[in-house]
């Protein structure tokens, strides 16, 4: 700095700083100076402390234009950690509080103020709990007012979303002041950004609430038909669904399904009158016509014997005390709820299931109750009921939002599938586990096709009959099957180096194409994106921030660089610095599985990544290992190698089809006693 200032005859070098011209325009400090790359363009500008002092005075100006410009500049510079530290140390946040608390302006000035506040709080120098109630209520008022600019409402919703998880008091304050009705109004806005921020706050409230509060909130949202609205206006809207909205829909689905957790983990209480009545209703619905004979004509013993017989026909293992079958938790009382729902909402299908199996031979009857209990457990496992939400997952089922009582309706379809598969397999009681295994496969394979409605799910799952499952299994087995003859194994080993080289080339090509990565902070998911790619000559990694919607930016637009020669090592999972920053209690399994870092330079700086998918993680870690001259270690390498080896072996062994290959080579015959059988070429030439 002093050299530059001397060259331009500028006094007081300490009043100046260097700043990047491109990208986020970060200030250069002692701590980050070694991150400057060759080719980076820097500019000489006012130092962060001078700039903080100037803007601190500017935002207190009586002149509206000066104040607005200062706030606009403040909103931009606050992204830089050095500037933010300087500004906060001057008690700058207090001035921002007072502008919000006292100001009645709802225009551009307020938007810049809220933006600056959001950016300053992002650095975690100040606790959210330090905010005054007046400030919070003012921010809440912008959310609740109609005649406010959408950008101010978005910023206000974003501030509240960050605030809610930090303390119970803030959660209660926001929950009380911002009603669910108001959030639903914003959710129905045509502005997609406003809709997204409203959904983000709703999800933050649901995740921070206690179980009882969450249940009440979900009941209220159900009354207001949020499911139908999401299904019609968000999932099936003309605009494509963004990653963040997909994540929020996944969380909403997960929270809804987890409402079943309490019943799933509760065993049946044989002394509960209500639960006994539910159990008896199953028997009465199925055998109503048979039980029309006046019960008073029967002795107590006879009546008990009749009940036990009917419970046996229903498929309970313990027919004298069927409550025992429901003591196992999970699935606990959830299985009973599902059976009762099936019997009440589809009585014809229920009666047909029970009576059809009552008339079969003993060993071929499909036990309704036992199947229902096991099926409920399978559905809970497939739909991850009772498991905590992932921070990054986006896998929601569109059909979930297309149906009230989704879990129960899905059960009704699948229990009829159990009966159908049982008949197709001609199963006996000994085959029960095999049948349920096939049913699990039918459900998971159909769900993987992402059907948009339960009707479509029903059609597809019924089309995937037992013979279809056998065909799919056979195909998969053929793909996996490999000849284990010794000569073939030797050939395999000879082919490996060539095919590994092919995989290495593919990994480097993928790195040259590049990948879009998402930045994830310790507090919340970020919507900031960055792109990284390898130069065509495999000598430099280029990376830089990009805007949403940019799929493959040109290599020239990525301003940051790391020479491959400077790369020291690759870290993955828990070893990465950006996973260690999180407190161990909050470490997210998904992020740990997708995190990797490159250590570079003499000072051992790190470039941190969180891959969008496991597939990308495998390709990037393999490619970086190739650049470092190390072995490729991902599970994908083994999978790709197996596929290529299998294909290459099959091509080479085509001519040997139906020929058995011996384990040892045939013996070499002894040399002949004479060589008279050889043709004499010399005589032919004469």
Automatic annotation (TrEMBL):
Report if keyword DNA repair is assigned.
no
* Example of a GO biological process term: phagocytosis
State the CDD domains in the record: PH_ELMO1_CED-12
Pfam families tied to this protein: ELMO_ARM, ELMO_CED12, PH_12
Q: Which UniProt keywords apply?
A: Apoptosis, Phagocytosis, SH3-binding
Q: Which residues does UniProt call coiled coil?
A: none
**Record bears the keyword Transmembrane:** no
Q: Which domain of life is it from?
A: Eukaryota
Report a single Gene Ontology molecular function: SH3 domain binding
Taking every annotated instance into account, which residue ranges of this chain make up the domain ELMO? 274-447
Task: Summarize the protein's role.
Answer: Involved in cytoskeletal rearrangements required for phagocytosis of apoptotic cells and cell motility. Acts in association with DOCK1 and CRK. Was initially proposed to be required in complex with DOCK1 to activate Rac Rho small GTPases. May enhance the guanine nucleotide exchange factor (GEF) activity of DOCK1.
The protein's name is ELMO3 protein
Species, as recorded: Oxyruncus cristatus
């Amino acid at each position: 700095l002093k050299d530059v200032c001397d060259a331009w005859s500028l006094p007081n070098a300490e009043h100046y700083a260097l700043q990047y011209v491109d990208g986020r325009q970060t200030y250069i400090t002692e701590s980050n100076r070694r991150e400057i790359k060759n080719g980076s363009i820097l500019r000489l500008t006012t130092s962060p402390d001078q700039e903080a002092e100037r803007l601190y005075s500017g935002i207190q100006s009586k002149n509206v234009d000066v104040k607005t410009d200062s706030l606009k500049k403040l909103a931009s510079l606050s992204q830089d950690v050095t500037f933010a530290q300087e500004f906060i140390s001057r008690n700058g946040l207090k001035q921002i509080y007072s502008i919000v608390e006292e100001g009645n302006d709802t225009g551009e000035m307020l938007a810049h103020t809220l933006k600056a506040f959001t950016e300053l709080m992002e650095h975690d120098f100040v606790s959210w709990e330090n905010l005054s109630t007046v400030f919070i209520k003012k921010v809440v008022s912008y959310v609740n007012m109609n005649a406010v600019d959408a950008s101010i409402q978005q910023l206000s919703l974003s501030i509240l979303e960050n605030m809610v998880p930090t303390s119970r008091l803030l959660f209660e304050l926001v929950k009380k002041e911002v009603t669910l009705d108001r959030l639903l109004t914003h959710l129905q806005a045509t502005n997609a950004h406003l809709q997204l921020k409203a959904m983000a706050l709703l999800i933050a409230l649901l995740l921070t609430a206690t179980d009882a509060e969450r249940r009440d909130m979900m009941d209220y949202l159900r009354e207001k038909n949020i499911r139908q609205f999401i299904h019609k206006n968000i999932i099936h809207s003309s605009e494509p669904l963004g990653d963040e909205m997909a994540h929020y829909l996944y969380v909403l689905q997960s929270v809804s399904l987890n409402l079943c957790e309490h019943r799933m983990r509760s065993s049946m209480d044989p002394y509960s009158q209500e639960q006994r009545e539910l159990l008896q209703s199953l028997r009465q619905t199925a055998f109503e016509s048979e039980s029309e004979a006046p019960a008073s004509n029967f002795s107590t013993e006879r009546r008990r014997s009749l009940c036990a017989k009917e419970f046996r026909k229903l498929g309970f293992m313990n027919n004298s005390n069927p409550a025992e079958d429901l003591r196992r938790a999970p699935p606990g009382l959830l299985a009973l709820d599902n059976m009762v729902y099936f019997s009440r909402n589809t009585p014809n299908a229920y009666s047909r299931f029970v009576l059809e199996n009552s008339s079969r031979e003993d060993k071929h009857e499909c036990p309704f109750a036992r199947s229902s209990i096991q099926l409920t457990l399978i559905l809970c496992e497939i739909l991850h009921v009772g498991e905590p939400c992932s921070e990054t997952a986006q896998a929601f089922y569109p059909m979930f939002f297309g149906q009230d009582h989704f879990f129960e309706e899905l059960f009704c379809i699948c229990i009829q599938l159990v009966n159908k598969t049982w008949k197709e397999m001609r199963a006996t009681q000994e085959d029960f586990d095999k049948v349920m295994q096939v049913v699990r496969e039918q459900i998971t394979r159909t769900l993987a096709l992402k059907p948009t409605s339960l009707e479509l799910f029903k059609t597809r799952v019924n089309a995937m009959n037992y013979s279809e499952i056998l065909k799919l299994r056979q195909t998969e087995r053929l793909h996996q099957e490999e000849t284990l003859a010794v000569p073939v194994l030797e050939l395999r080993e000879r082919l490996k180096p060539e095919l590994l080289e092919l995989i290495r080339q593919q990994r480097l090509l993928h790195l040259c194409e590049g990948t879009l990565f998402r930045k994830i902070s310790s507090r919340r998911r970020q919507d900031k994106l960055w792109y990284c790619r390898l130069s065509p000559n495999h000598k430099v990694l280029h990376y830089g921030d990009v805007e949403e919607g940019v799929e493959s930016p040109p290599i020239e637009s990525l301003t940051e660089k790391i020479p491959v020669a400077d790369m020291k090592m690759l870290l993955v999972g828990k070893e990465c610095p950006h996973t260690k920053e999180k407190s161990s209690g909050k470490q997210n399994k998904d992020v740990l599985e997708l995190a990797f870092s490159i250590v570079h330079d003499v000072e051992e700086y790190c470039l941190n990544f969180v891959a969008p998918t496991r597939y990308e993680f495998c390709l990037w870690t393999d490619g970086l290992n190739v650049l470092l001259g190390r072995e490729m270690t991902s599970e994908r390498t083994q999978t790709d190698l197996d596929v290529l080896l299998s294909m290459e072996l099959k091509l080479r062994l085509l001519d040997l089809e139906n020929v058995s290959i011996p384990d040892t080579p045939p013996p070499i015959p002894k040399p002949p006693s004479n060589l008279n059988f050889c043709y004499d070429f010399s005589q032919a030439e004469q």
